[in-house]
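Fold it.
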Amino acid sequence: MSMEGIVQQGTGELTGSSPVAPNTRPAKPRQFGFFGELALKASAVLVLLFLFAPIFVIVMFSFNKPQGKFNLKWSQFSLDAWTDPFRYPELTKAMANSLEIATLSTIVAVVLGSFVAIALVRQRFVGRDTLDTFLVLPLTAAEVVMGASLLTLFLDLGWNRGFGTIVIAHIGFEVSFVALTVRARVRGHDWTLEDASMDLGANPRRTFGKVTLPMILPGIIAAAMLSFALSLDDFIITFFNAGSTSTYPLYVNAAVKNGLPPQVNVLATAILVVSLILLGLSGLRSRRAPD
């Protein structure tokens, strides 16, 4: 030991001092002052009002009894629209088309997107980075560009626009959302569990059903809900490729000019309620699921 170390050690023993521990206290959050905190809370409230005010208006006007064809001005409280939500056959048909298109396109997109996500994470192949880039393009490209390009494709192929072209168009942009959402879940998957399952005698199909699928299922459910909502809500791409087929957004757009009944608000509120129930069930399942 050097002379300097001996002196320091002796000094510490004589004075009874100990090495200084580093300061581990968490940093104190910056205080904005009374007016700063008030402005921050007020801005948060205004943002929430801006987001939820349209939803509140839709729900509120579903209980309105308009005097004319347009349900745009509050008249009086009534449950007439709720007791007869399918009064207008064209509106009912448009909503049924939207639900059917969203269901079919979501099923296909979830299957294709999930396999793409697994392949991108597990496999190394030529063109992997290029495929990864192409997945992002539908998310960044303007919907009018996608709608016009798909319209040109269908016209060049000689296909009649209608229900089928809408489903294909929706699958086209939903696959990207599904692949990216599922890939985020798959990246955290412990692939050694599959090896352990097969070491214990399980075949690849049973391993996928009992090990892989339950691990990535939350990501698949989230992707499916997102795809369904995007399909149900889409207007621009659907408008380009719908032909004579009407969906709920297309009907609402036309109803603004000809007549907007309160049943439009009733069906929108019903979809909102169902969505909230599904979100609640999904959150409940996530809390009960083991870590």
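The mean pLDDT is 83.
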